[in-house]
What does this fold into?
Amino acid sequence: MPILQPIVNLAELLFQKGITDVVVSPGSRSAPLTLAVARHGRLRVRVMADERAAGFVALGMAQQSGRTVAVICTSGSAVYNLAPAVVEAFFQEVPLLLLTADRPHEWLHQRDGQTIDQPGLYGTHVKRSYDLPADNTHADARWAIDRSVNEAVNLSQLLPKGPVHINVPLREPFYPASDEPFRYERPRIVEVLPASAQLAAETWHQLQDDWERADRKLIAVGQLPRDPALLTILRQISDEWGVPVVGEIISNLPRNDSFITRTDTFLAGMSPEQAEAFRPDLLLTFGGSFLTRSLKTFFRQYPPRQHWHVQPGVDRVVDPFQALTRLIPGEPTPFLQKLFADLDYQHFLQGDDEEDSRTFLHHWQTADRQAARLVHQTVSDTDSPLTDWSATQQVLDHLPTSSVLHLANSMPVRYANLCGIEERQQIAVAANRGVSGIDGCLSTAMGAALATDQLVTLLIGDVAFFYDRNAFWSAPVPPNLRIVLLNNDSGHIFRMIDGPGRQPELETYFETPHGYTARNTADDAGLMYMVCSTKAELASRLPDFFQPGDRAKLLEVTTDKLANQSEFANYKQRLASLLAE
It folds into this structure.
């Protein structure tokens, strides 16, 4: 048996466990792992020279597919460079399998190169960390490797999903001799059968009774992938029961005549008297994080009498509104479908009208429509210059039907949330709102484009874009990727925040102007490059920009940060006037 046969077999084990994609960063200590996946033939292996970018590319692929993606890197600081993607995957509940090569542990603190204390390095930001045996010729060691890898892949997929770390100490020689056989032995597979949580009948009937007794009910949806079945049942509940359904662009709730999606505008600065008309008796939530401060602040200041949260696992109490009263295990779609099915027939028999609930819904929907008019007035002035906000509105209006939209953090995701997506567009929205950093937004979108044939559009600011340019290094850029770069030559969000916006050090220490354009980056990466600085130019570029082609495309939208600031200040003034009415 070749000396590293258990490591060779590891690649086959990954494949048999359903992993099809592996992202590799080159290195010598990791060579046995790299060769094992590269020569396998049935694994899709992509090379990324920068480990930080590699981690986020894998994250984007796993976001898109829902399946575990493996990442391989060499020892030392390379392992730490995966950390930003690891923490984002952990808090966003995205499945990754991190395979980090290591030196045998007896060489730690012995002045040997690229040697750090790697076992457990990611701490509580992975679901579990494994450390494989360095000496793998004994039968027990081979058993331990197979068992650990089986368990790790299973764990990454068990709800809530997330990243799992396998540290792999390796001894030389790393490279097979020219006459050494390279074959894959079929591993033993440990299958975990799915289990579905089912509430006891008595508990379910109690939930129904409590739901029915609450006069004013509201559903708020956090970050979730697009789910047509979920959208259907939410619309039924809103239309037939008069329950407001509130969400944001990262909730994948589209703009329509049922859902309330402009809370960032109309919940800001409400008086206590106004707020009481919007306070629910029972708040039902599910999904991940909420984007806007206005929504979170409202429910913290005006908490409901009851707050139920539905989530697949109940190992953590998630209570962002500081009002949680009931944690319900399960997936939101089947929970809502059963609730609707069980109660709707009962409503029909009883002839319930629920007039008070419809009055409550009317309050929310009226405010939502007023907010829509305010946003439209802000961005539709044809005489005003092109701004980041008005450019975002134009881009979203032109998105191809049934495509994917990735939103970078800082201002792009906020502008997009103010604009929204129309239901007819059928757009799937993704964003890194687990930790919400700007690092890796470009790499994540590239990973998504690698994992789908659909067009993937990334809306990104200049600081996030230039921070993550290594996304273009080593991996061919998929031709279905479209990048809209909002370049205002600054960290624009700091001009919008009251604190740094009032400081004399704003430009030097917060905004950090750079003077860069993306032209040379686009040329180096082989992207089709376009640029515009007016509304007319943007309108003329967008049709061709979204056309399919054999190359990825980058559209650089240059704006003036002072014009952006003036437009946002005008919006806030109009908002204050609206709330004062």
The chain has three domains: 5-169, 201-367, 380-580.
